[in-house]
């Protein structure tokens, strides 16, 4: 399958319905549209949307900044474009923005059983540094806490 040509741009409020649709397909305990709107107003959030050649929204990545650390709070791609490099481009974009902005460590939580996401994060230098027991609902499952140092691939 060929890699889809996408652009990654800042999220706008108009993107939220399509993002909420992807979110509902991606997660068993999805964020409501309201959460995306609230984060658009959050002073320390960075929200990026991936758009295909026809303008369709195919993914998003939300990063929250706290001084010189950041958290990947959410990342998802549309089921129809999975395994074609869109998630990696979104994550690379967030890492590059964080690094350019002085972030020295990035964190995230991931379901222990989420092999797709864990493989993506591992390929970008994230390593497990902790576990939050019964962190997720539907179904209840532990979260692994992953960390990526800015020096991961230097
Ligand atoms: C995780 C997710 C964002 C990955 O998006 P994607 O667009 O499919 O990812 P990419 O095509 O860029 O994959 C990049 C790398 O991740 C890994 N990967 C992605 N999907 C994988 C899968 N199903 N199985 C194993 N590895 C996988 C591979 O290393 C892949 O590189 P490769 O294709 O060269 O082998 C996507 O599967 C998704 O939206 N899942 C549901 C939401 C979710 O779980 N978000 C993360 C919450 S912590």
Structural features, described:
- The protein is α+β, with helices and mostly antiparallel strands and about 150 residues long.
- It has one domain: Aminopeptidase, CATH 3.40.630.
- Helix content is about 30%, strand content about 40%.
- It has a seven-stranded mixed β-sheet.
- Strand 6 and strand 7 form a beta hairpin.
- The longest helix has 15 residues, at about 85-100.
- The chain starts with 5 loop residues before the first strand and ends in a 5-residue tail after the last strand.
- The relative contact order is 0.15.
- The chain binds coenzyme A (COA).
- Coenzyme A binds near residues 86, 88, 110, 114 and 120.
The number of helices is 4
- What's the CATH superfamily, by name? Gcn5-related N-acetyltransferase (GNAT)
Structural class: alpha+beta
The overall pLDDT average reads 96
Count the domains: 1
CATH architecture: 3-Layer(aba) Sandwich
What can be said about the biggest beta sheet?
Answer: 7 strands, mixed
Alpha carbon gap, first and last residue: 31 Å
Uncertain stretches of 5 or more adjacent residues: none
List keywords for this structure.
single chain; 154 residues; alpha+beta; Aminopeptidase; 7-stranded mixed β-sheet; 38% strand; binds coenzyme A
